[in-house]
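I had to read the description of the data format several times before I understood it. Each protein is reduced to its one-letter sequence and a matching series of backbone shape codes. The format is easy to grasp once an entry is in front of the reader. For illustration, here is how one protein appears when written out as sequence plus structure tokens:
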Amino acid sequence: MRAWHFVGTHKPFERVDIEEPTAGPGNVVIDVKAAGLCHSDVGILEDEKWLANMKELPVVPGHETAGVISEVGEGVTDWKVGDRVAVWPMLGQGYSVNGAWEDRSEVSTETLVAIPDDVSFAQAAAATDAGMTSVGALTTAGVEKGMKVGIIGFGGLGQIGARVAHLRGAEVYVAEINESAWDRAREAGAVKVAKSITEFADVELDVIIDYAGFGVTTSDALDTVKSSGGGRVVQVGMGKLETTIDTYGLILGRKQLHGSAGGSKEDIEETMRYMASGDLTPVLSEIDFEQIPDGIQQLIDGTAVGRLVAKVTD
């Protein structure tokens, strides 16, 4: 069957043919219908630190998986062939085992989340990481009605985080360098949009969530979040894995810096409920399976629109 392999840092993904998986005890095999692309898929190509997350190479990337169960293993009783499912990527899926960039994928039933009837496979794939991570960060940040919330980045993650923060009743401010996305940010509920979060320094933001993570975005967030009452910055984006911060302002301002990685099954379910109701319609750019390297290049170039999702099988 078709697959893409990650073979090492600074090396391109390789298109390969590998053996089809079979469902071991407690596992199922999914015919993958849609597989998301993420900035962390760029990260593994560029930064050796990602290798610590991998048991061995080569590995099939792809931690945003949606499809249909085609085989169940011994002992599986709660799921059946034909069920539409998404995969919670926090239990070993992604880079430590083969992921979604293949025609069929073996996964544990512990990772399965049912896809509502009104949610497409592409939406469900995006919900598994982009949705889960975005909503999980809102939970980490304690976002609730009446709060002033800054969102850095209105890409695959930020568009969901901004919209759900608005749906929760927060006053949302978006920082996005790509002005072509500004109208969409306003439509999602942002009261103001600017190129840098520093332009909202006078707003006294309670929380800033950095969905970009390109070094300066993190330091700017800490400089901008309110000092009185313990402003909070939640770091999600991993565009760069290092930054320099002003510890003087952090300490005297009694500010907080939190890392937020992934989220829960409940975060995926919340995302898909908003999708099913029509309240959340993130922009998705669908590409063909063979175009995955082209999609990665779009992420590198910053030309990707919304969340990239590859159509894998019909």
